[in-house]
Amino acid sequence: MTTLHERIRGLLSRASQAAQEHGVLPQALAPREIQLERPRQASHGDMATNLCFALAKAAGKNPRALAEAFAPLVREVDVEGWIQAVEVAGPGFLNLRLSDAAWQASVTDVLLQGADFGLGNAGAQERVLLEFVSANPTGPMHVGHGRGAVLGDTLARVMRASGYDVTTEYYINNVGNQVGKLGESVWCWLREPDKRATALAIWGNGDPVAFPDGFPAGFPEDGYRGAYIAECAEDLAKTGLDCPTADWTDDAAWRAADVESVTGRADNRTITVRAWQRQLDRIRDDLGKLDIRFDNWFSERRLHGLDPETRDAVKDVTRRLLGTDWAYEDENAAPDDEDAVVAGRAVFFRGTSENLPKQFRDGKDRVIIRGDGRPTYFAADIAYHDHKLARGFDHLINVLGADHHGYVSRLKGVIHALGDLRRQEGDANAARWTGDRLEVLLVQMVALLRDGKPVPMGKRSGEFVTLRDVIDDVTTAEPASGRDAVRFLFLMRKADAQLDFDLEVARRTSMENPVYYVQYGHARLCSILERAAKEGRLPALDAPATALALDDERALALAIAELPEVIARAAKAREPHQVAYYLTDLCRAFHGYYSRHKSDARVIGDDDAETHARLQLVRALKQVIGNGLRLLGVSAPERMTALPDAAEMEAEG
RNA sequence: GCGCCUGUAGCUCAGCUGGAUAGAGCAUCGGACUUCGAAUCCGCAGGUCGCAGGUUCGAAUCCUGCCGGGCGCGCCA
Questions:
Q1: Average pLDDT of chain A?
Q2: Do both A88 and A193 map to the same domain?
Q3: CA angle in degrees (0–180, nearest 5) for A361-A362-A367
Q4: Residue A99: CB less than 7 A from any atom in strand B
Q5: Which of A42-56, A66-80, A340-354, A565-579 bottoms out in mean pLDDT, i.e. has the lowest?
Q6: DSSP secondary-structure letter at A162?
Q7: Pick from A232, A262, A289: which residue ends a domain?
Q8: Closest residue to B22 by CA to C1' distance?
Q9: What is the arithmetic mean of pLDDT over A527-550?
Q10: In total, how many domains does chain A have?
Q11: Is the CB of A189 less than 7 A from some atom of nucleic acid strand B?
Q12: Cβ of A410 less than 7 A from strand B
C-alpha cells in the first residue's frame, strides 16, 4: 500500500540519486525529508517542492540553477509516468503537474485501503504516555477540563494513526488537602440529615445556593459548597460505607469505623475515599459521554503506599534526593500552617541549581516535604514521573491547563535531577531520565458564552456550569449531537489560543457550526451512493476512475490524497485541530463541486464510464471524511435528521 | 518586577513550522433549487499580519526592543 505523496517523494528521491550520479549533487549527501505542498495557485501545478532550496547549500549552487538541472532528471526517472510537466518557478521551486493517471490513482488508493487510508508510521512505534484531564475528583468537570479531555483523547487517536504506541492515563489526585476537604464537606452534610433534606429540596428547585438554614455546623470555611456535596452525602447515607453503625451523628463510632484512617489523615478516611470515588465515577461518566476512555487510571494513593501492596515511593524518592545535592533540609523555615503537628524541617528541591540546563531551571527552590512532614503535590509528582519513566515509556506528554505553566520547568528540572540521581546510583538506564522526555501541552481557557454574552461562573459560590450541562445543552435531535458538537468545536482552535464556546452557536445547524457542515457533507455523499445503489449503478470497488476529467475532480482527488499528510503533520505537531480544518476544507471543495456541476455534470448521468468514475470519487470522499471524523471521535451520519421547521424555530426563540 | 501564552479583514479564527499574489466562516449587499440533500453554492466588498529594528535569496512565521490583552510567580493542586 502506498500513497500519492509517497510515490512522488520516491520519484524525487530517485531524481536526487540521479543528480548525484550526474555530478549535479555531491556524492555524500544525507537523505532528507522531502516537503511537498499544494500550491494555492492552480497555475503552479498540483504539487510543489522546495527540495532545491534545501539542497542548494550542499550542492554549492543557487537554488534556481539547481532546479534547472534537476527538472530533466525528474522526467528521466519517471518511468511510471506520474508526472505530466515539471516547471522551474520563482527562485527555485519545482512545480509538478501530475498526469491524469497519478491523481486518479489516489481515488483508487482510498477505496482499496478503506478505513486504513490515512494511517502512517511516522511515530515508529515510539512508546508515549499521554496523561490528560487528571481533574481532581472533588467535583464535577467544567468546560476547561472538557477541552483538555477532548484535546488529549483526539491527540491519542491522531498519534496512534500516525504510528505512535500511545497509552492514555488519568492521574487520580486522591491524596492531600483537597480530597481531605471533600471528605470533611461531605461528612458535615451527613451528620445533619434534616438540614440536608431542606437544602436538597431548595437546590432541586433550581436555586443554586440560597437556602434558609445555611450550611451545616462546622462546615469548613474553604470546603466544597456545591449542591453535589449534599447529594453525595445523601447517597452515602442511603448506601452506607459497609460499616457497622447506622447513626451518622455518632462521631466516635464513625471514627472507630474509619479503619483506613490509621494515620489520622483526613484524606485517608473511609468517608473521604468513598466521596472521591463517587466523584470519580461521575467524571468517568462525563468522559464517557464524550466517548473518552482511558487505558490507565493511576491512583496517587499508591505512590504514598496507601493502597494495598504499594510502598511509599514519595518518601523513598525524597530520601534518595536528600542523599544528593538536589534536595536539602531547611531548618529555618517555620510552618505557617497552624495545623502543623510538628514544626519540623521542610525539604526543598534545588530547582535553581546551576547543574540544571537553563530551560529546566526554576525561579526558586520548591518545597517537597512540608515542615510538618506532609509531602506536597510536587513530591508526589516527582515519584509519579519517576514511575512513568521506570515503566519504560520513551516519551511523556502531559496536557495541562495553561494556568499551570509555571509548573513545567520545575517538573522537567526534577526529571533531570532524577537522571543524575540514578547515574550516581549506578543505574544503567539513567540516561532515559532527561527533562526533554517530558512534553507539556498547555490548553488555554474556555470562555462560555450564550448568544455572545459570557455565562457567569463563580466556583466559590458553588455555582458553575459543568461539562455535563454543556453537553446536554447542545444536544439536539441526535443523541450523539452534543458529543459531536463539543468535540468538534473544542478542536476548532489550536490549544494555545483561548476559546469562546457559544452554546447557541453549538446548537446551530449552519456553517457557523462546522460540525454540521462536515456531517452534512458526509450525509450528502451517502445519499448519492444510496441512490446509485438503488439504480444498480454502483461500480465494483476496484473499478478505475479514469473517466474523471474536470478540474474540480482533479482538485478533489488531490485533496483526498492529503489525508495521510495531514494526519502525520497533526501528530508530529500535536495539533489535532489540523484534522478538523482539513475536513471543513475538503467538504467545502465537495459542496462547491456538487453545486457547480449540478446541471452540466451530475454524478449519476447517462454516460456509464463517467458515472462510475464519479461514484468512485464520491465513495472515496465519503471514506476520507468518515476516516477523519472517526479520528476526531465525531460520528459520521449516513443521513441527517430533519431540522425543526421555521415555525418551530420561532416558537422556541 | 520576573516568566509563559497571545496580537492576522468590522467580528471569530486558519495559515502545512522560513516559501510564490496572506485565506475561511460570520455579518452587509447581490445572485442560484423541476433533478443524486439549498443544513448547500456562486459573486461583490473587506488587510500597515500590534509597532520599530535585525537575520537572508525570501519573514505573518526566527531574534531583539517597545505597546496592548490573558495567565502564572503558595509549606494550594
A1: 88
A2: no
A3: 130
A4: no
A5: A340-354
A6: T
A7: A289
A8: A40
A9: 94
A10: 3
A11: no
A12: no
Q: What distances in angstroms separate CA A89 from CA A17, A93, A353, A524, one per listed residue? A: 22, 5, 53, 39
Residue A447: its H or E element = strand A446-450
pLDDT at position A464 is 59
Whether A575 is covered by a domain: the verdict is: yes
Query: Which residues are CB-neighbours of A256 under 8 A, at least 6 positions away?
Result: none
Give the domain CATH number at A27: 3.30.1360.70
Of A237, A258, A289, which residue constitutes the final position of a domain?
A: A289
Per-residue pLDDT, averaged over A88-115, amounts to: 94
Protein CB footprint (7 Å) on chain B nucleotides: 2-7, 12-17, 19-26, 32, 35-42, 57-58, 70-77
CA of A531 to C1' of B37 (A): 12
A503 touches strand B (CB under 7 A): no
**Residue A93 and residue A188 share a domain:** no
Average pLDDT over residues A110-126: 96
Q: Are A165 and A207 in contact (CB under 8 A)?
A: no
CATH number at residue A571: 1.10.730.10
Assigned domain for A622 exists: yes
Pair A91, A189 in one domain:
no
A359 touches strand B (CB under 7 A): no
Query: What pLDDT digit, counting tens, does each position of A253-287 carry?
Result: 666 666 555 566 888 888 899 899 999 999 999 99
**Does nucleic acid strand B have an atom less than 7 angstroms from the CB of A372?**
yes
In A352-463, alpha helices (H) = 377-390, 408-424
Contact flag, residue A89 CB and nucleic strand B, below 7 A:
yes
Confirm whether A210 is domain-assigned: yes
The confidence score (pLDDT) of residue A338 equals: 40
Q: What is the DSSP string of A241-274?
A: -S-S---TT-HHHHHHH-TT-TT--GGGSHHHHH
Residue A433 lies in a domain: no
Q: What is the pLDDT of residue A321?
A: 96
Which residues 411-440 of A interface with strand B at a CB distance below 7 A?
A: none
Domain around A87: 4-98
The 10s digit of each residue's pLDDT in A447-496 is 888 877 777 664 444 455 789 999 998 988 888 999 999 999 999 988 88
Q: Is A439 helix (H, G, I), strand (E, B) or coil?
A: strand
